[in-house]
Amino acid sequence: VHGPPPQILHILQAAEHGASPLLTGFIISCAPLCVVILSPIFGYYIPQLGARFMLLSGVWLVGGSYILMSFVVSMPSGWVFIMFCILLRLTEGVGSAMFATSLYAQLPELFPHSVGTMSGLVSVAGCIGFAIGPPLGGLLYSVGGFKLPFLTVGGFCFFILFPVYFLMRGSDTGCKKQVLSFRTVVKLLSNFMFLLLVVVHGLSMAAWGFFYPTLEPFLSSQFHLDTKQTGLVFLSLSIMSVLCGPVIGKLADKFGSRGFTITGCVVSAASFFLVGPAHFISQPQLWITVVATVIFGLGSSLMFVPNFKAMLAIAKSVEDTEATSAVVSGVTSSSLSLGEFIGPIIGGSLTQVMDFPTSALVSCVFSSIPC
Q: 28, 40 in Cβ contact below 8 A?
């Protein structure tokens, strides 16, 4: 659902319908910002609303917003087009916050002894989506124009409502339970280690976001790669995460999460050090850049996959209830969306004032902060 294809299509159509670059940026960013704000709120109230209800409602809202979004190209240019785009993106953000928060909240309840492994599998699913989203979105756009990618994604969301509805029947038997007290929430959010892990979670997604506006121009200008070749380099980012995610999750279940998270921060920082590479190491070479992206895929998995389990363990030490898992899920979803929002901004801003190797070196410093 998320990622480059809808953003690129919004940019194209917004420009044609009279939206300024500032308004176009707001149209794109209002959905992840909505997730940042609402995910902790939804996480807090999951015990009363029920995870199944929230998951189904979220998928329904996202699917409906995408189907309706396909028709905005027929609206008059100017403020009518802009306001409907913003309204639908906000609706998408509400739905995304609901289903993402619900998804993570159910992992500890459904798989109490393998939270790390299941978190790894969820990470794999996300990486597969990021890998196939750009080429699939581009293919659908080339075949059917602006409408077809949105109609396809929206239709698929409605399709999966049916298996989710029946497979999760009975999973809301525990709803209407008591939410966490305000005092417990404050105690949790004032825990230094918990907040540090939240920062790591956000940085893992911000690091991904850094590459979206920066890596493609660097590859095309420095190595003269075409669109397909650039796509293969981006694919290497996801493939390593897909291969390593479940293994890292299983190892984290067995040996604990802390060592993996620290190692992930170091490996991710090293990948930013090499992806340019830094000017004092070597001149830009394609094989070094590709190896660095593969290393980054490993490092981001080490940062991301064990993190939810570690945050959950800290939260359970404060108060061990189902409501605790729901709150952690909301904070997790919020931190990821915040990283998704600020990553491209940081990357784009840095490359405005310095070249790609130097901007990656600066990002290396940010990645190593939690260490």
A: no
Rounded CA-CA distance 227/113 in Å is 43
Report CA 37 to chain centroid distance, whole Å: 15
Distance CA 226, CA 220 (A): 7
Asked if residues 368 and 266 have their Cβ atoms less than 8 Å apart, the reply is yes
| 145, 147, 149, 153 alpha-carbon torsion, rounded to 10° | -170
Q: What is the mean pLDDT of residues 193-207?
A: 87
Tens digits of residue pLDDT in 322-362: 788 888 889 988 998 888 888 878 888 888 888 999 988 88
User: What's the half-sphere exposure (Cβ side, CA atoms, 13 Å) at 217?
Assistant: 12
What is the rounded CA–CA span in Å between residue 77 and residue 90? 20
**For the whole model, what pTM was predicted?**
0.81
pLDDT over threshold 50, residue 4: no
Burial class (CB in 10 A: 0-12, 13-18, 19+), 96: buried
Cα–Cα distance between 299 and 155 in angstroms, integer? Answer: 35
5 confidence band (pLDDT: 50, 70, 90):
very low
* Helix/strand/coil for 76: coil
Asked if residues 281 and 274 have their Cβ atoms less than 8 Å apart, the reply is yes
